[in-house]
Amino acid sequence: MQAAEILKLTPAGLYCEAGDFYVDPTRAVNRAVITHGHSDHARAGHGAVLATKETLAIMAERYGERFAGATQALRYGEEIALADTRVTLKPAGHILGSAQALVQAKGGRVVVSGDYKRARDPTCPPFEPIPCDIFISEATFGLPVFCHPPAEHEVAKLLHSINVFPERAHLVGAYSLGKAQRLIMLLREASYNDPIYLHGAMKKLCDLYIAHGLALGALTMVAGVPKAELQGKIIIAPPSSLNDLWSRRLPDPVASFASGWMRVRTRARQRLVELPLIVSDHADWEELTRTVREVAPAELWVTHGEEEALVYWSKQNGIPARPLAIKGYGDEEEEEAPPAETA
Fold this sequence. Notes:
Rossmann fold, 7-stranded mixed β-sheet, globular, Metallo-beta-lactamase, Chain A
């Protein structure tokens, strides 16, 4: 079987006929292999779902225990036979439980990366390059302008601002799955041991991370805390909370936003962000191109993001490439809206 025959693009996403399953399908299907728990890749309603135990736990938390007809957990590096294929999940370095799906059939090897990054993340195992015939990559930040600084440097900026403005609360917009927990862990590694305050929408997923062994330290819900007690404190909330009525309960808040998009100054200005933090859970341009070189595929497929630039770069470097333009994937943090929370 040719590698290009192992997976094919359908209206529901990438389908493996030899194994009769989809990888990160964009609609409900009979059998799905899910790379990670973000809602643009992990949807409810499938007949059966194969994923890491952490991803299954995230899906259960977000969609309820009956999010699929049946589930099966696979450990990193464990191989399973699905009809005429073999499937292995390898770390993607994106969020807790995130994985790349290696699909093998009759000598061909295809890797679906899902979303990934190469930067260190204390909340999940690092990305593992997998030699393959076809590498299917995201390209969320697939332009040379995107060069993410070390996340530790951005956390140091936040702590410096607290020292400069001890009378002001620091409200950090961060996606509730992955980004918030990574920031908390980085703050703890930087010896910030004060309680970190959370919008109510962050609690369940932070509790899930704690249940999976992540030491997030003291966390306190903002609701009910007197305004004066929040001076000089860090509050983590969904990005959409930065400029809504909820933020007015805070003492003269410094509006901050942790996202790879903060590299684009117009985005920071549009969101009225005073302290942009360039912290991303996606690979930047250098990481994307380095990964393709390390994997050394015979062909590159690009699922979503800035597809054209990465496809052009790949072809210029002697690797045939094509965009897949799968509708339904995206940067979920741009769309997240929290539930209403009362004081």
